[in-house]
Write a structure and sequence with these properties.
By secondary structure, the chain is α/β, with parallel strands linked by helices. It has two domains: 2-165, Rossmann fold (3-Layer(aba) Sandwich); 168-334, Dehydroquinate synthase-like, alpha domain (Up-down Bundle), CATH 1.20.1090.10. It has 13 helices and eleven strands. Strands 1-2-9-6-5-3-4 form a seven-stranded mixed beta sheet, sandwiched between helices. Strand 7 and strand 8 (143-150) form a beta hairpin. Helix 6 (168-185) crosses helix 7 (187-195). The longest helix has 18 residues, at 168-185. The model has no long low-confidence stretch (mean pLDDT 94). It binds nicotinamide-adenine-dinucleotide. Residues 39, 41-43, 64, 66, 69, 96-100, 102, 122-123, 125-126, 129-130, 133, 135, 145, 162, 165-166, 170, 173-174, 251 line the site of nicotinamide-adenine-dinucleotide.
Length: 336
């Protein structure tokens, strides 16, 4: 299946096809220098499969985990690009999850004021969400994604076969972004989580989630308005994630915990919580409200004391509402 992200001169194809990892050459010109960036948990066979198709290929492997999104690693990759005399005609391929995608994209956006990059996502989270839309970033001074850019890839190649090696917890974690996409924009996708099989029907789930993100990004590439709805569940989710020294939760798990706070309809909230339970997602976290509120106050998306929160009153529709930190504090006390 081929989708096309329509963003004028920044448009690109998104290929979703089992086995497409082996077909890179059918979708892009590989006859120049290519740096594949991946991490040490991504199975070597995927890296070798891509590398075998690129005549002049270099490989940079980072240590897996969020710490890879750092200035230090950014510098090391730029060093590699310089050492191998990469020019603007050359390319970067991000092969891995959202960490590798965000990091590689930021390097690509910066090196020589921008060289081409291709996303080959290999986690559910990156196949469903992070590989399209052009948000690229690294972390700095403990603040997530604080240095970054909007920089679109030239191509996104999604091969669901790569998910066979993904640990179950990561698999489920990424699916939360698809559940979120259903809740904010496509009720039929939300219902798939109730009626279909998240393993057997994964290709359809990915396709529908991509269609949601594509539609939203095409209308608002730089997050001036509508794109904010993709942050549903993230206001409290991010706060829980930033408070992570107290537990060990993944991004999607935190978003799943954050979503119910912004659902006014009790029945819809209960349906969502039942889905999360069926998927084996955590249903509880210690409520460190003071810590969460302090994270929200420092959030780069906050406008002084005001935060744009995203509400879902009925499946498939989202509404943005500006709230003060005090109002959110009240909500935390009252809900659930
Ligand atoms: N740019 C965006 O729009 C956007 C959106 C959401 C999240 N993000 C970012 O995405 C990151 C999280 O991404 P993630 O959840 O993919 O985590 P991740 O990139 O850390 O990948 C999870 C783990 O799975 C391993 N892995 C990857 N593919 C594998 C495979 N096929 N088989 C076996 N192991 C595999 C990785 O090596 C890693 O250890 C965060 O940094 C978050 O900020 C970005």
């Amino acid at each position: 299946m081929k989708l096309h992200m329509n963003l004028d001169e920044h448009s690109y194809d998104i290929i979703l096809e089992r086995g497409c990892l082996k077909q890179l050459r059918n979708y892009t010109d590989v006859n120049h220098k290519i740096l594949i960036i991946s991490d040490d948990n991504v199975p070597r066979e995927y890296i070798d499969t891509v590398a075998a198709q690129c005549p002049e290929c270099f490989i940079h492997i980072v240590k897996h985990g969020e710490q890879a999104k750092s200035l230090h690693i950014f510098e090391k990759i730029c060093d590699d690009l310089l050492k191998h005399h990469f020019s603007r005609k050359d390319k970067i391929i991000a092969l891995g999850g959202g960490v590798v995608g965000d990091l590689s994209g930021y390097v690509a956006a910066s090196y020589m004021r921008g060289i081409d990059f291709i996303q080959i996502p290999t986690t559910t989270l990156s196949q469903i969400d992070s590989s399209i839309g052009g948000k690229v970033a690294i972390n700095f001074n403990g603040v997530k994604n604080i240095i970054g850019s909007f920089y679109q890839p030239k191509l996104v190649l999604i091969d669901p076969n790569t998910l066979k090696t993904l640990p179950r917890r990561h698999y489920i974690n990424g699916l939360v972004e698809a559940l979120k996409a259903g809740l904010i924009y496509d009720a039929s996708l939300f219902e798939m989580f109730e009626n279909k099989d998240i393993d057997r029907d994964i290709d359809e789930i990915i396709a529908k989630a991509l269609a949601v993100k594509k539609a939203v990004v095409e209308q608002d590439e730089k997050e001036q308005g509508l794109r904010k709805i993709l942050n549903f569940g993230h206001t409290i989710g991010h706060a829980i994630e930033a408070d992570n020294h107290l537990h060990d939760l993944y991004h999607g798990e935190c978003v799943a915990l954050g979503m119910p706070y912004f659902m006014s309809d009790k029945q819809l909230r209960e349906r969502t919580q039942a889905i999360c339970k069926k998927m084996g997602l955590p249903s509880e976290v210690s409520a460190h409200h003071a810590n969460w509120l302090s994270v929200m106050r420092n959030d780069k998306k906050a406008d002084h004391d005001k935060i744009d929160t995203v509400w879902v009153h009925e499946a498939g529709q989202a509404v943005i509402k500006q709230m003060s930190i005090a109002e959110i504090a009240e909500l935390l006390e009252d809900t659930l």
